[in-house]
Design brief:
Heterotetramer of two alpha and two beta subunits. Pfam families: CoA_binding, Ligase_CoA. This is Succinate--CoA ligase [ADP-forming] subunit alpha. The chain has 2 domains: 111 residues, 3-Layer(aba) Sandwich (Rossmann fold), CATH 3.40.50.720; 148 residues, Succinyl-CoA synthetase domains (Rossmann fold), CATH 3.40.50. The chain is 32% helix and 23% strand. The strands form 2 sheets. A 7-stranded mixed beta sheet has the order 3-4-2-1-5-6-7, sandwiched between helices. Strands 9-8-11-10-12-13-14 form a 7-stranded mixed beta sheet, with helices on both faces. The chain starts with 9 loop residues before the first strand and ends with a helix.
């Protein structure tokens, strides 16, 4: 089993004719993802990487049983693209684009909640269920099928940690990138709940960072989980009130500090690694 995407997911690429959309379509196809169609207004009838291109999502949906869409649209057009996908009945949307306007992101999430749509991102590396399907921009070669779920706010940190899991013989069920923006579709708690209910997943890795309260909120759910959780947090040396890369990675009014997150996670029973490559050793103690 896997969460969010699996071998049966039929994928649409919105923005397939752009440089990023075209390149990552080729990589998803190479991984075995069932990319059925692409959408690029005014460019219907073309084929990109062998994938047929349509002018609208509705038109693509008429031809293929699309279940998920990945968006490579410039930030100003993401809201319209997401709304178009949801209006066509697509229930899983991955938004790779960063710098989506805040109010647009809020509108997307409100619409998604109303229509029970799972949104990953914005500003995400995507989601991959190793050996089954990939919707995102992550490197293909570092993943291996297995029993550990990974959920992360950071793309590069998740790559490093997942690579160390793989070389230590620990495979992954699904790896999920929440996204680095202030407003994203899924929380740590949302994804942890999916992993808790997934029969294949036997342990979970949470990759967090300073800023916001997502990790503290997740600790409340971790306290109820039956599966072990190992965490790594970035930002131990970051000064207060300074934004560090991600829009959500800022400590404000004493909240979202490294120490507060570590304390909350450890109190909930999670093991917290001091360095990324220590995650694998802590997992082996749990499994």
């Amino acid at each position: 089993m896997a969460i969010i995407v699996d071998k049966d997911s039929v994928v649409l690429v919105q923005g397939i004719t752009g440089k990023q959309g075209s390149f990552h379509t080729s990589q998803m196809l190479a991984y075995g993802t069932r990319v059925a169609a692409g959408v690029s207004p005014g460019k219907g009838g073309q084929r990109i990487q062998g994938v047929p291109v349509f002018n609208t999502v509705a038109e693509a949906k008429e031809h293929y049983p699309i279940s998920a869409s990945i968006i490579f649209i410039p930030s100003s057009g993401v809201k319209d693209a997401a709304f178009e996908a949801m209006a066509a009945g697509i229930k899983t949307i991955v938004i790779i684009t960063e710098h989506v306007p805040l109010h647009d992101a809020l509108d997307i999430m409100a619409f998604a909640e109303k229509y029970s749509v799972t949104v990953i991102g914005p500003n995400t590396f995507g989601v991959i269920s190793p050996g089954q399907s990939k919707m995102g921009i992550m490197p293909n070669i570092i993943y291996t099928p297995g029993i550990v779920g990974v959920v992360s706010r950071s793309g590069t940190l998740s790559y490093e940690i997942t690579y160390h899991l793989t070389i230590n013989g620990i495979g992954q069920s699904t790896v999920v990138g929440l996204g680095g923006d202030r407003v994203v579709g899924q929380s740590f708690t949302d994804v942890l709940r999916l992993f808790e209910n997934d029969l294949e997943t036997q342990a979970v890795v949470l990759v967090g960072e300073i800023g916001g309260s997502a990790e503290e909120e997740a600790s409340l759910y971790i306290n109820e989980m039956t599966k072990p959780v190992v965490a790594f947090l970035a930002g131990s040396s970051a000064p207060p009130d300074k934004r560090m890369g991600h829009a959500g990675a800022i400590i404000e009014r004493g909240k979202g500090t490294f120490d507060s997150k570590v304390s909350a996670l450890e109190a909930a029973g999670a093991k917290v690694a001091g360095l990324p490559w220590e995650v694998a050793a802590l997992l082996k103690q749990c499994l």
